[in-house]
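dumping this here so i dont lose it again. seq + smiles for zinc ion
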Amino acid sequence: MTSVFAMLSEEDILLELKQYQNWHQAYMEGKRREERPGLPENKDAPKYTSYALFGTFIHMLLFLAIEISGFLRIQKFVGFFSRLRISTDRFCYEPVSCGYNSAYTKLGLALLSQNDVVGAIRCLETSWRVHPCPHNTSFGLKRSLVSKLKGYPEASKAVAQYIEIGKQFVSWSEEWVERINKS
Ligand SMILES: [Zn+2]
């Protein structure tokens, strides 16, 4: 379940988000490509295309395995395949990003369904430590685990922290929070 990368700090994430927001603002103002500020580079991205291709292939298989296990309600398998997704994250073309957030969300949900609340909270605390990417800045961080953990008093600190950082990822932050509260 552990990542090969050093955990991203909140400071690093906020800095990268600021760069994304600046780029978006310039884009909305109609500035041309060469006039826009640069987007942060994912320094953890694989150096070789073959790595990223291999990653796309195995992550597609793991995605299917997780979905089928979830459909069959075999949470142990959901947990197993999610851990595999996390441990092979370095092969992803955008490591420690949307896929990583999603895998920790799935793992946390699987642990929660097996009454491992402590494990699920740990997953939530790790899942937001990701690089901003076009997907998590458009759709926001995953909401399903935080929505479930809202009902557990012992998770309140981790829930508040996730919501606070998650709001920074999307310009429609109020609606994002509303959706967590509704589910
Ligand atoms: Zn992404």
